[in-house]
Amino acid sequence: MPAYPNPPDLNARPNGKARLRAGLTRGLARLMHSSGGGELSPERLPTARILVIRPDHLGDLLFLGPAMRWLRARLPDAHIALAVGPWVKPALPGLAGTYDELIEIPFPAFERGERAGAASRWGLLWRWAARLKRRRFDAALIARPDHWWGAMLARFAGVPLRLGFDTPETAPWLTRALPTAHEHAAASNLRLVAALTNDSLNPNPADHPLRFQLSPRDLGEADALLFDIFGVDNVHPLAVIHPGSGAAIKLWEIEKWREIARRLADARARVLITGGPGETELTRAVAAVSSGNVIDLGGQTSFAVLGALLHRADLALGPDSGPLHLAVAVGTPTVHLYGPADPTLFGPWGDPPRHRVIMSPWRCAPCGKFDWLDLPAHGCVRDISIDSVWRAAEDVRLPIHN
What we know:
Order of helices and strands: HEHEEHEHEEHHEHEHEHEHEHEH
């Protein structure tokens, strides 16, 4: 195992700034008596005003879908408001019909690009607390376990019942903190909504699957695109490779994706290489295979049309990313590559034989660290073998012909 020049210390304490913030927020919470009380009566619960806070990105919102559907079915007459970052709007069809009100908040530390400064973050907190206070919510669910900012927001908004998870910076702002568990994020979300209603449920993907609502327009656009590319209807076998991800450390080598694309094409599959507007250089490089059946679609589809293409496909492959979870949500077999991210927490929420996880061969994976400085030297995902990915593609029964 090679030595990296700038590895993060996996056992390091939080830096001074983080420790200061944690101490100040916990002290402030104690002064405000943030814990205790705030239960909803059984009589009030069916028509309660409930705020669900989820600050993260596309895949995380898809993981919230099963819990939101269960909550909607359990409390059909409640007013459910969903507070999310504006960056997740493309994933909202995964929660269609589950909420009455959408509240877009540019949650600090989750925005892409340059981060807001401390003054801006605190100013945002006070402004949004005042806005939410006027809505008179009865309960707030903080769906991300460590989201202390969201828990504090609910406290300053005067929400009497604040339910979340028992993490050091979040728990002081809650009236009820659930124990954390080494479980999938979708399971944690389901456990959270069941705690609100004092119910018990079995949080598994068979009973509570991911979903993504595809419109006839999206499906029609995908079908037209496939016909324009390949000149036939019902394109099968069809594979989608989505090589990009939100974190550079999750990426596999371009040459390896290119070899997988070549093998798929040699096995008579048609292959689409997909990616967002900022990933066109990556998709172009992966699609550089001497085959007319490997097509670069980088930056050419919306999230919904990508979902429709994935729905038409027989297989989707890629590193841990929102689009791979979208593939699970539309029912397509998948092969996911994992390194630093823990698949127990963030893996495919679906039937394991149809959704294969290929882990890094490194003993330290998953480390949960995404801030390695020397990425070109980092071998975590890079050292996953081509043959292991190819065997997984064959195992999920892609109808290819050698």
